[in-house]
Structures are given as C-alpha cells and as structure tokens.
Specification:
Belongs to the bacterial ribosomal protein bS1 family. With about 400 residues, the chain is of the alpha+beta class. Helices cover about 30% and strands about 30% of the residues. It is built from 10 helices and 18 strands. The strands form 4 sheets. A 5-stranded antiparallel sheet has the order 3-2-1-4-5. The chain is elongated, with a radius of gyration of 48 Å.
Length: about 400
C-alpha cells in the first residue's frame, strides 16, 4: 500500500467546496466506504499495471523462444522450407526447359501451370513439329504433364510463352545425325519442289533432294506426295541444312537384287514401249517384248496402272538406276501372261528357279570352255555342270557352281 501511496504523491485536487460539483456533506456521509474518489483511482491503476506486466512477460517469453528454440512448434523444418522454395522457383530465361501441366485448352492453344506467378501459354503453332490446327491433334489435353521450353513473354500480363515444337526439333536433328551415322535408308514424303529439286519430309524436318540425286526421270509434279527411299548426304543443324540422295538409297536397294530374283511390284504408268513398275521404291521397266512370249499389241489389254504383279529381274544398271524386268520368263506356257496371269504369278518362283539353273549351267559351260585352254588347272566339267578335280587337292565330289551368282553386265 505504501508503494501505491507513493504513486499518488504530489497529486493535487481542487477543493470540493469551491467546485461547482461540491458534494453535500450530509450525502457524503451516507456513501460510507465509497466516499473517497482516490480509492477508485488506485483500483484502476492496479489493473493497468497488472496488464502491462503480463504483456511484458509474454514478449520476454516469445523473445527467449525465438532466441533459443526458433523452430519449436513449427510443423515443418528448414529443409522442407528450402525444398518448397526450389519447387516453386525456376529460371524464366528464354530457352529454359520447365515442367508443366496442361489445365485448359482453347481454339488457339493451351494454358499450362508451371508454378509461376501466372499461368503460361502454349500457342497451337508451337504445340507440334507438324502443322496442326488444334492442340488436340498433338495429343494435348488437360492433365498432360510435359517438359516445355520458354520462348517468350506476354508483356500484357507477364505470362510466359511455351513451346513443344522447339524441343521436338532438337530431338529430330539428333535423330537425323544418328541415322546418318548408321548410314541407313529412310522414307521421305515429297511435300514441295523448286527448280533445283524436291523437298522431302523426314523425322518432321524438311530436307532437300537435288534432281541430280533422284534415280528416276520423274518430274517434280509426278513425285509430289510420294514417298522416296533416301540416304543422308548432309546434316547441319547450325546451318539448317538437310540434304538427301535418292540415288544412293536406290544403289543400296539394287545391290540386294540379283538377276533372276522374283519381286512384287505395282504398275505406275504405261508407255507405248512398256510399263514402269515400282518395286519397293525402285522404278523398273517391263518392256513390251518381255510381257509374254505371245505378241502384245496393246499393253493396256494386259496391264493397268495400280495393278500388282510379280516380275523377275533381268538386269540392272547401278550407275543409272535402271532395272529391266520380265514376266515373259515366268510363263509356264507361252501366252499365259495374256490368258491366265494368275497362273503365272502362282508359278513365278518355280519358273524363276528353272531360269536361274539354266543361267548357272550356261555360265559353267562358258568357264569350262575357258579351262580347256588351261589344262594345267587340273579341273574338268561333269555332265551336270560340276567342276571336279583331276588331283587330290580338291574335294572328290567337286565344286557345285549351280548357285554361283551371275556376273554384272558391262554398262
């Protein structure tokens, strides 16, 4: 109580008798314990002091906890906080690749959530390496999670512009370099032309095929929308140069064709002198004289463009990319190609085998004639076309030459 009295030391109050609020002594005596206004002031001061002390202690306790145990009561660790920052923080520089989830599509593109301050946008022209009208054509639907490349920024709302096309271009160039290293033959669709050659689409990239590197004499209009077998000549991503050769691809294909082999072909066009047959990308000529043993006055009565047939390889010029074909050699009976072509195709392999045997025997006879002028070789020819030894240096059964491939024709 003494301390409370000290707080009010020097407190002066005006005389109650002189105040206009003077109190009647008689009434003052009746209020008993509440007669003094100083007692009320002391009670209010006690309550305020208690509140101040409690508030001070609360702040002191909070400060001590922050100093000694700052993470006490926090439901995550500093490591969790750092991981959260990394998850929602990324480099927005042009060319940066980010993960995102498509959450809406529209006529001109798609909205993508890349955990940035605003959603990113994928324009339809950047949705695929191929030309499409709607993003759905590229398999883009809400919920798709993919890696995108940042290619720009929309200044109107600070949103980022994304691309899948740029990433697909990188992969396409890498694939072309790999295919060139493997020296493989690829298929390319002709989608355009200029005065120097045609433009072919391979792995989504547009490459150039010079006319000098096309094996056939077809015009650009005739090649449009057709697929050509191609080989890579140049793959330069930095210069955006992609050059192909159809002639090299044809040379590889022709190397696998042996004289006397039977292949399946499709009639491409008819000319007065014969029919052009497509045999797996190679354009061969079935001359009118090689259609049948019987005379063919009008090719159109036997063949039509689009017909599928079996033909036999008679010869091929690798330098010029020319292949000569025959159905005449496949006829079981002369004239069957005109009267019963189905029978010709059924017996094609059998007739071709007979043809190859005759060729092999003829070549063996020619070699035997040469050996007659070289008796020191010690070889002789049996009636079956088998060269056998006169000495014990070679197998007693001799060497079978029936499967020796034919020599190439001089060009």
């Amino acid at each position: 109580m003494a301390s409370l009295a000290q707080q009010f030391t020097g407190l002066r109050c005006s005389s109650l008798s002189s105040s206009r609020f003077s109190v009647n002594p008689k009434k003052t005596q009746k209020v008993g314990a509440f007669s003094s206004p100083v007692v009320s002031a002391v009670a209010v001061s006690n309550a305020q002091t208690k509140d101040r002390l409690e508030l001070k202690k609360m702040f002191e306790d909070a400060y001590e906890r922050c100093r000694t145990a700052p993470m006490e009561g926090v439901p995550f660790t500093l490591e969790d906080f750092q991981n959260a920052l990394e998850k929602y923080d990324f480099d927005s520089e042009l060319g940066t690749k980010v993960k995102g989830t498509v959450f809406a599509t529209e006529a001109n593109g798609a909205l993508v959530d890349i955990t940035a301050k605003s959603s990113a946008y994928l324009p339809v022209q950047e949705a695929s390496i191929h030309r499409i009208k709607h993003v759905e054509e590229a398999g883009i639907f809400p919920g798709l999670r993919e890696e995108f490349m940042i290619i720009g920024e929309n200044e109107a709302d600070d949103s980022l512009i994304l691309s899948l096309r740029s990433i697909q271009y990188e992969l396409a160039w890498e694939r072309c370099r790999q295919l060139q290293a493997e020296d493989v033959v690829v298929k390319g669709k002709v989608v355009g032309a200029n005065k120097g050659g045609v433009v072919a689409l391979v792995e989504g990239l547009r490459g150039f095929v010079p006319f000098s590197q096309i094996s056939s004499k077809s015009t650009a209009e005739e090649l449009l929308d057709k697929e050509l077998p191609l080989k890579f000549v140049e793959v330069d991503e930095d210069q955006s140069r992609l050059v192909f050769s159809n002639r090299k691809a044809m040379a590889d294909s022709q190397a696998q064709l042996g004289i006397g082999s039977v292949v399946l072909g499709t009639v491409q066009s008819l000319k007065p002198y014969g029919a052009f047959i497509d045999i797996g990308g190679i354009n061969g000529l079935l001359h009118v004289s090689q259609i049948s043993h019987d005379r063919v006055s009008d090719i159109a009565t036997v063949l039509q463009p689009g017909d599928t047939l079996k033909v036999m390889i008679l010869s091929h010029d690798r330098e010029r990319g020319r292949v000569s074909l025959s159905t005449k050699k496949l006829e079981p009976t002369p004239g069957d190609m005109i009267r019963n072509p189905t029978l010709v195709f059924e017996k094609a392999e059998e007739m071709a085998q007979t043809f190859r045997q005759r060729i092999a025997q003829a070549e063996a006879m020619a070699r035997a004639d040469m050996l007659r002028f070289q008796p020191e070789s010690g070889l002789t020819l049996s009636p079956d076309g088998i060269l056998g030894p006169l000495t014990s240096d070679l197998p007693a059964e001799g060497l079978d030459l029936s499967d020796v491939p034919a020599a190439d024709e001089d060009s």
